[in-house]
Structure formats: structure tokens, C-alpha cells
Amino acid sequence: MNTPAHLIFGMTAFGKARRPAVTAAAFAGSLIPDLSLYLMVGWHLQVLGTPPEVVFGQLYFSDAWQSIFRIDNSMILWGIAFGLGAMVRSQVMIALCGAALLHLGLDFLLHNDDGRAHFWPLSNWIFQSPVSYWDPDHYGNIAGAIEVALSLLCCGILWHRFKGIWMRGLIVTLGAAEFAPFIIFAIMFAGP
Questions:
Q1: Alpha carbons 32 and 77: distance in angstroms, whole number
Q2: pTM
């Protein structure tokens, strides 16, 4: 899934009005599994000038990058942290880890040939889902449309839940970030 959708879903599932620390934890938990990817891609594209086809065609699948993804995308590690948070009844830890687990569960189901080893350190196995959130050869056109629709529905729920101007600004920004690529790709790939 696209990162804005993860943020929207994580805040919908675990964010709480009038509990900014819990909502911030839900936001962070939704982002952390993708954060290493953004940092490494940004470093290579913006600082080192590595061509995008090398970044996404070679480095993404390299052992070095995958070893990092194994850690921040481990359902095992996040599950242990969630359990510990639940044991001590920490709403912040539950929101952080719950949002991360939601992110990973959705990624598990929606990555075809670009998945990650979600069961590390027990296994390096990578599930190859028959459905991709982006690849039209694996129902990406359908999954992408559903993702956008559910994201916009969740934005409505968040809008109703959060009344503050900053949160509403964030909701609009995330909704636009999720919806804009859908429109751009539809225009780019529309037939004559």
C-alpha cells in the first residue's frame, strides 16, 4: 500500500481524539515500517545521484537493504512489543505497535514480487501475494481503487473524530496525497 494510506488507516484504527500522544504513536507506527526505505531511497536518489532504476531494480532487492527491511517489517518483533505494551497497559505502545502491525498485515496481503520477510528472525521467507497494490498484472488497478476509496472513507471518519485545525490539515494532506496519484495514473494510462 501507499504510505499515506497506511497513515490514514493507522490513525483511524488507533488514533484517539483528545489523546495526542496516542494519535502521534499511531501515526509513527504506521510510518516506521516504510521509514528505512524512504531514508535509503532519498539518500541514493538525492545525495548520491543513483539512477532510480538501480535503486528500485537492484538496491531494493539487495541483501543489504533486505536485511534492514527484515527488522523494521518483522511481525514477530512488532508483535512482541505490542504484547509488552498490552501487559503494561500502555495506550501509546498499543497504538504504536498496533498501527505498525496493521501496516505489515496489509503489506503482507498486497505485495506481489516486492514483499518483505515479515517473520524474521524466525524465517527469511517472503510471501508472494497474488494481489499487488500497484501492479495491474496482479489486480493493482482494482486493489489501488479500493485502497483510495477506503482511504477517503477513513479520512471522513478522521474528520469527524478530530476537530482541531492541525489535525484536519493533516487529514486533508494525507487524503490528497493518497488520491492525487490515482488521478494522475488514470490520466497517464487512459486510452485515446
A1: 13
A2: 0.92
What span, in angstroms and rounded, lies between the C-alpha atoms of 96 and 114? 24
Rounded Cα distance, 185 and 122, in Å: 38
Maximum alpha-carbon separation in the chain: 59
Contact indicator for 158, 11 with CB cutoff of 8 Å: yes
Peptide bond into 121 cis (omega under 30): yes
Summarize pLDDT for 120-145 with one digit per residue, the tens.
Answer: 999 999 999 999 998 999 999 899 99
Query: Residue for cell digits 488507533?
Result: 14
Short-list 141, 136, 138, 146, CA closest to 112: 138
Which of the 8 DSSP states describes residue 58? I
Cell numbers placing 172: 486533508
* Domain positions in the chain: 3-188
Cell digits for 53? Answer: 532504476
State the amino acid at position 173 in one-letter form: T
